[in-house]
Here is the input.
Amino acid sequence: MKHFIFACFFGLTVGSAQADLKIFATVPEWGALAQEIGGGKVKVYTATNAFQDPHRIEAKPSLLAQARQANLVIAAGADLEIGWLPLVLRDSGNAAIQNGQPGYFQAANFVNRLELPATLDRANGDVHAAGNPHTHLDPRNVLKVGEALTARMAELDAPNAAAYQAGYQAFAGKWQTAMTRWQKDAAPLKGVPVLVHHASFVYLLNWLGMKEVGTLEPKPGIEPTSGHLTGLLARQPGAPAQMVLRAAYQQEGPSQWMAGKTGMPAILLPYTVGGTPEAKDLFGLFDDTLQRLLKGLR
Amino acid sequence: MQKSFAMAALLAASCGAHAASDADLAAIRAQIDDMKKTYEQRIAALEQRLVQAESQASSQAKSEKSVPAPSPVENRQSVAPTNAFNPEVSLILQGQYRHAKNVPGRGITGFVPGGEGLNTRGFSVDETELVLAANIDPYWRGQVIVAMADGQANIEEAWFQSLAIGQGVGLKVGRYRSSIGYLNEQHPHMWDFADAPLMYQAMFGEGASYVQDGVQLKWLAPTSLFVELGSEIGRGANFPGTDHNNNGTGGGALYIHVGDDVGVSNSWRAGASWLKTRASERSSDFVEQLGGNVAQGVFNGDSSTWLADFVWKWAPNGNSAHQNFKFQSEYFVREEKGSLNATSVDSSYKTRQSGWYAQGVYQFTPQWRAGLRYEQLDSGTRDFGANAANLVVDSYRPKKASAMVDCSWSEFSRVRLQIAQDKSMFGITDNQLTLQYVMSLGAHGAHKF
Here is the structure.
């Protein structure tokens, strides 16, 4: 162990040459993207699943053990993981994945973030200083992040750079085609006003031109209260919403209550890869999201 | 090229103007002015674009040395750039209303007190904790926790830790809460009950945590099973040790933590720890056999503490936001060996004491949690040698049972109601009620598992 320390103090750390790039993805969507780009050249560990609230993850021992061995950590960024990831990174004893190192990649840094707060005050709930972190539900962001991620993977694993580029090109081609299809299919959704459980769908709604007219949470991160829901209900005649959306990890109670009172459909969206049986990969995620939204229109 | 074209246009315009009337002239002048303006604007815009393109090209050329493909520009935009280098600041407000029996010199029967007992009743404000933390540079991170109470500010923790050693090695230097056991590292605002288990109070006094001034070196094994080995050496100034102004060290610890997931819904951590401290002239109160007067006893010797800890957490699908359950239990054995001077008699001193607690906390809605804790200590064997004839040797098994309910409006605010039956003192059954609040302001950092 002494040797390790001395070696490191004098900057003599030797990067071990491995065939696999070990990737630690905090959330399923970016894990899935890394898999699309890296194919067989990468080993992706996804720290959370679609049924877990990404804001409320604990720094579990298993996560520390995985972070210890990772070459690259892919985080959603914009403070989404602030409650657990900084601790996991620091206690992992892994110098390569610390903030500021090439082995630490934050997806939100490569897209235009929405909902940047003008003032920071917890009176507004659990606001994210760096803007809304749920960036992946705009497929254009997936491409931007994919491009940056490919460059990062190529930098970390130069021998496989060409393979990553090829993987990304193949993915981007399919993605462009799918995006054209999605945009065509989603045309009827334009301008449709919706209620959401939490502001998890800002980028999706922005992409589709839908309108968010209210959140079931009174403030971000605060559970819906009956008083707030009643208030939303009272607003319904003046500013009617056509459906109420929630992510797979959110409780169904509040949106079901809203649906029951107003007759509008309560729609569960996969939110991320694995959120519904159909959302097996990134393509499935958007296919299923659109299908469920369109079904809500009927 | 754009400029020369503009000049040509101006010339052409001025040439044609010679033969024209005054009115025409004015109109032409206005036209020329307009043209001038628009061209100047366009030129300025083009120049700006050129500068941008040049700077982008140069930055790309730089980055291309390390990055094969031109990477999209990373946007690390922050909301408050002037504040960006300041440490993360957070402040913990904690206070309580406590209803309990009035027991001056509160202690635990059969155990040497590690400090003054807590006998505050009614309304009170606990220590207010101020936490400052930041990355120092790419290699180190620092943190300080100052606990403020009436008329004093204590440095609870002040350390820096390594970020860049790698190979699973972590180094922490300064004053830190030792990583032995499970609860030891946690500050009071993270506790699931209003007070620390008796076991921690017996081991380390009212602070209920062993704090070391020294160096911690730990290593995380490169396995998918979490295995962490740690060692600590330091001043060893706190109970059960004493401060001594020596070269060398006054205490040390070793620990191992192991943990993993079971399925997607369960995770656990288990640990074993050993703490060694040295005491010189550690004085505490004993009771004389004759007359029952309080006598000062002075202990010199070594103290070894072994700890075993276990934590199990369950949440459906691993989503702890709505429902979760946490079970935690710890056990300790302490042996002390040395000499005791009391009532002017020197004798040997040998003790072996133990204790445990177990608790479960269930969060049944996003805001509400309820928990139960049971604990028991064993005063064990206490061999005072020649002093056994002079001093009362209590043999007792202190017990306590607690139940709590707490409510959190958000992750940052919590109130708790706790009732407890405390039989930690022989002959006294103390039924306690505590109403407590814990509020955290500012950039509240992540909590350990």
Notes: Chain B touches chain A through 67 residues (CB under 8 Å). The first strand of chain B starts at residue 88 and ends at 99. The two ends of chain B are 67 Å apart (CA to CA). Chain B has two domains: 2-57, 97-118+167-442.
